[in-house]
Amino acid sequence: MSSAPELTLKAFNPADRIHPVKGGTVGSALPAPPVSFQLSQGETRISTPFPPPAKKSMEERLFEALVAAKVRTSLVAMHLHGGVRDKIFAQLNRLHDADEWPEGDEPLKLESFKTFLRFLLLFEPELRPSLGLSPDGNLLAAWVKEENRLMLEFCELNRVSWLVVREDANTFPERGSGVSTVDRLPEVLAPYRPEDWISRG
Amino acid sequence: MRYVPHTRQIIDEDSGNVIGIYPAAFKLRPEDKGALSVNWIEFYGSLDDESIALAADGFRKNLQKKKLAQSALFALGNVGEAKRRGKLIRKPIRILHEPEGENDGHATIRQLDDNDQSFLDALANEVFLDRRAVAKLKLPKA
Question: Contact A144/B10, CB-based, under 8 Å?
């Protein structure tokens, strides 16, 4: 039984070892034409240069962002109660509808979503927020009760931009806004009684 | 009026109704070059459904895909009220008619401090209160 001859490339010398093949059909749709490699046994094989990474379509980017967020959610799903996971997924699906996607917007950033998950685990809000997306891919959440509203923008590194509008009877509407971390949010929002929005009460 | 995609609408999860707009709908993007894009309805005539549809069509013409999302809406606001709100917080804004490309009714809100979440929220939920769903507009054929 004879063993197959070992194929080895000769010393690399682009000038006389690699000969571009003109008119190749395989490479006609690729950014660069195919080239032939002269192997030591006189055998020629055709290969193509490593193609540059293709620019992803928006549909692909939306899909990838959605998958990344869902995978991340699955890691903490055991701590989410009452069908929370399914409700989040439904909202994320709606937000990432490719047919409705606004031109120039960025899909959900995973770092922003991580901050949101941390918020869910710390606050355990009984009432689910409406979710939205900022143009640069930060997750937005809002609780609205008539004229009163609490809105959060989840940013990377556990940072949260918050806004509260509270209109109690016979008082001028009170507004507050700022930037904090998720961990500090309970203390920062306490004067505005966030439980009025996020608890069933 | 300002175009608001579905991602910037606050939607009641039970009813599916739009109950507000995120302040982010009025946030500047790098391509805005410091001026927020809106459309001036009265450029097309009186403040009625026909002028609103023409203004929406003007906005559509400047989009790459020449297509408005069916889930999007236009939020309509009063220029005088927007300026008054700016003056109240000592951050006066200017609103200028600046035709752009095929969008003859294009206008811009200038000197807008889009780091002021509270002001953006006031614009989104107290000034631009009249909301018209794209799906219900009688747009001219593209």
Answer: yes
DSSP secondary-structure letter at A146? T
Burial class (CB in 10 A: 0-12, 13-18, 19+), A129: buried
What separation in angstroms does the CA of A54 have from each of A28, A60, A62, B76?
16, 11, 16, 41
Query: Would you say A49 and A36 are in contact if contact means Cβ atoms under 8 Å apart?
Result: no
Nearest to B20 among A91, A97, A142 (CB): A142
Residue whose entry in the numeric block shows the structure tokens 């439980």: A195
| Residue A52 tokens, joined | 């540059």
Distance of CA A94 to the CA centre of its chain: 14
> How many whole angstroms separate alpha carbon B111 and alpha carbon A180?
26
A:B CB pairs within 8 Å: 81
Q: Which residues on chain A are in Cβ contact (under 8 Å) with B20? A: 142, 144, 149
Chain A CB contacts of B118 below 8 Å: 163, 175-177
Q: What radius of gyration, in Å, describes the C-alpha atoms of chain A?
A: 28
Q: Give me the interface pTM, i.e. the ipTM.
A: 0.93
B24 and A135 within 8 Å at the Cβ level: the answer is yes
Give the mean pLDDT per block of 10 residues along chain A (201 residues).
47 45 43 56 64 83 97 91 88 96 95 97 89 97 91 97 86 88 94 83 64
Q: Name the DSSP letter for residue A48.
A: -
| Gap from B24 CA to chain A (nearest CA, Å) | 6
Q: Which residue has the tokens 């593209």?
A: B142
